[in-house]
């Protein structure tokens, strides 16, 4: 199948991890006889440097013409003093908003090989397999006004019924295909927007009688993610709560470098990126963990292209690579078969482990 993938490497470790994921996708494209083509675009600080804007028009136009988007990460200390509208992060928020990518899925899976890599006890992270469904185009990130007024600053947390309903519905749809449980996270004991959120969740839940629903306040949810993480299936929440809880949840997997994400809308176009940032502290040193981005590429194949077999080739190869002891420096893996490698070598291992699951000659 001929498909175009927009590749937006961004800043910091972004180029290192996206080039790894592109190598993985190229391997699959070749082995399965797909015709993937990759078109590069600038975003974030590199967009500002090359074209004067963190989301150049040219990039947006490449993305609109593509079937899926693979993104690295944006941001870095050298851009922190730019005016707000030129900051790299604004480019990321703008692409999410422009393309109406309202549903951000962040799967949190504890791999067997990494059960001792988390600071939590092994028995606590065993069986962790949940997904955070984060609302991505509303809430505090986009509410108006958002401004400085002398010695006062204001941000606005606003949600419409329709914005809540579409993300909550997505969460219930997903739960139907999984363990049939939705945990809705809000702050309904204080915030008006959360009271509305809870009302809409109750309404949507009526369409899914087979799915169990629980409401948890965000502060308690932060605690429960650590004390009983295996009890979750689908967590649905607003934009900023989802941002914070997903970094917390990544600790269960052993590293922020293990958390992929898919940002989806109603049709098949999706944007796929690791949940982590540009990690300026390790950029350019071949130290970054490429697995979050590689697993994001698997989500791309599954969600945008319906290539389920190819996606599972990636996922199985990642599991096998970790089971063989290979890991990057962010993962605390010990034991007799532990092999610490750099970004590129980790990608090489994933590609090597993919071989046994792929057809040896072109089949389609
Ligand atoms: P970060 O996620 O970049 O890094 C946090 C810590 O995790 C760092 O110690 C980093 O080295 C480590 N880490 C992250 N990803 C890793 C990986 N793949 N392999 C190994 N270690 C990894 O968050 P930060 O330091 O708070 O932010 C740095 C910059 O990234 C900021 O400019 C921020 O705005 C931006 N950011 C961008 C995104 C994105 O593009 N989606 C997400 C978060 C932060
Ligand atoms: C993420 C990031 C972004 C967010 C920033 C960089 C705007 O933290 O993708 O999780 O807050 O959404
Ligand atoms: Mn974040």
Describe the structure.
- The protein has helices at about 15-30, 45-50, 55-65, 90-100, 120-125, 160-175, 190-205, 220-225, 240-255, 290-305, 310-325, 345-355, and strands spanning about 1-10, 35-40, 70-75, 105-110, 130-135, 145-150, 150-155, 180-185, 210-215, 235, 260-265, 270, 325, 340.
- The chain has about 375 residues and is an alpha/beta fold.
- The chain folds into two domains: about 1-100 and about 255-364, 3-Layer(aba) Sandwich (Isopropylmalate Dehydrogenase); about 120-255, Isopropylmalate Dehydrogenase (3-Layer(aba) Sandwich), CATH 3.40.718.
- Strands 2-1-3-12-11-4-5-10-8-9 form a ten-stranded mixed beta sheet, sandwiched between helices.
- A hairpin with a 5-residue loop joins strand 11 (about 260-265) and strand 12 (about 270).
- Helix 1 crosses helix 10 (about 290-305) and helix 11 (about 310-325) packs across helix 12.
- The protein is globular.
- The mean pLDDT is about 95.
- It binds nicotinamide-adenine-dinucleotide, 3-isopropylmalic acid and manganese (II) ion (MN).
- 3-isopropylmalic acid binds near residues 75, 89, 92, 243 and 277.
């Amino acid at each position: 199948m001929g498909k175009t993938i927009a590749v937006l490497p961004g800043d910091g470790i972004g180029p290192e991890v996206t080039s790894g994921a592109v190598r993985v996708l190229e391997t699959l494209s070749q082995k399965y006889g797909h015709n993937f083509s990759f078109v590069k675009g600038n975003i974030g600080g590199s967009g500002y440097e090359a074209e004067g804007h963190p989301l150049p028009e040219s990039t947006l136009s490449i993305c609109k013409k593509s079937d899926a988007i693979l993104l690295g990460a944006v941001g870095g200390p050298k851009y922190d003093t730019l005016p707000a509208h030129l900051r790299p992060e604004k480019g990321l928020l703008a692409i999410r908003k422009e393309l109406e990518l309202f549903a951000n899925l962040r799967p949190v899976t504890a791999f067997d090989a990494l059960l001792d890599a988390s600071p939590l006890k092994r028995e606590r992270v065993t069986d962790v397999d949940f997904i955070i469904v984060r609302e991505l185009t509303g809430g505090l990130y986009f509410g108006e006004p958002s401004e400085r007024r002398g010695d006062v600053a204001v941000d606005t947390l606003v949600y419409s019924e329709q914005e809540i309903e579409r993300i909550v519905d997505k969460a219930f749809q997903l739960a139907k295909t999984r363990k049939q449980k939705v945990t809705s996270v809000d702050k309904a004991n204080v915030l008006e927007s959360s009271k509305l959120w809870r009302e809409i969740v109750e309404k949507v839940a009526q369409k899914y009688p087979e799915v169990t629903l629980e409401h948890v306040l965000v502060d308690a949810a932060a605690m429960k993610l650590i004390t009983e993480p295996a009890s979750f299936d689908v967590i649905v929440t607003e934009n900023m709560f989802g941002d914070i809880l997903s970094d917390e949840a990544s600790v269960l997997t052993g590293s922020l470098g293990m958390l992929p994400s898919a940002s989806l809308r109603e049709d098949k176009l999706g944007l796929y990126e690791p949940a982590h940032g540009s990690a300026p502290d390790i950029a350019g040193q071949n130290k970054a963990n490429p697995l979050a981005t590689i697993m994001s590429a698997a989500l791309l194949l599954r969600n945008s292209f319906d290539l389920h077999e190819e996606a599972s080739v990636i996922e199985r190869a990642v599991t096998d690579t970790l089971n063989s002891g290979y890991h990057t420096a962010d993962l605390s893996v010990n034991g007799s078969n532990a092999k610490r490698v750099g970004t590129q070598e980790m990608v090489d291992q994933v590609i090597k482990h993919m071989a046994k699951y792929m057809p040896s000659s072109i089949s389609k």
